[in-house]
Amino acid sequence: MTPDYPLLARQLEALLDTRDWLTNSAQACAFLMQELPDLNWVGFYLQRQPEMLSLGPFQGKPACHPIPFTKGVCGTAARTRETQRVADVHAVADHIACDADSRAELVVPIVANDRLWGVLDLDSPRQARFGEADQAGIERLVAVFIEKTDLE
Ligand code: SME
Prior knowledge:
Layout: H1 5-15, E1 19-20, H2 21-35, E2 41-49, E3 52-59, E4 67-68, H3 72-80, E5 84-86, E6 104-112, E7 115-124, H4 132-147, E8 149-150
Parallel strand pairs: 1-8
Antiparallel strand pairs: 2-3, 2-7, 3-4, 5-6, 6-7
Helix pairs in contact: 1-4
The protein binds methionine sulfoxide.
Methionine sulfoxide (SME) binds next to α3 and β7.
């Protein structure tokens, strides 16, 4: 069953009350891991130097760092500024395997003032875990994060 994304968006709006990117991104990871079923990793990668993603707050196993814009599903999302939804990461040659359990992946770019601030990466052990409704719902949650946070 698709989660109630409008309700989750309202709950996230209430939770993110600091405007601080570090606190808000840590809270957002914990919230998503708690509320969305079948995830093994959720986290932020930040662009802190040109064309490179640095690992930010996350929940899950220790992960890959750094990720250049030229590599992996996260790099593609950062480079194209388009959400990447992958049903089976084993079928993607470019995928960077951090946790062997990961099977499906959704990466949403985070753009503020026309600058790529970072990406939100969600991994699932279940193949085809993320459908169109999940993509739209999670993009809405990222929009809430952007709205409620001062992004540097
Ligand atoms: N799988 C990602 C790398 C990040 S981890 O999944 C946490 C990728 O291919 O970009």
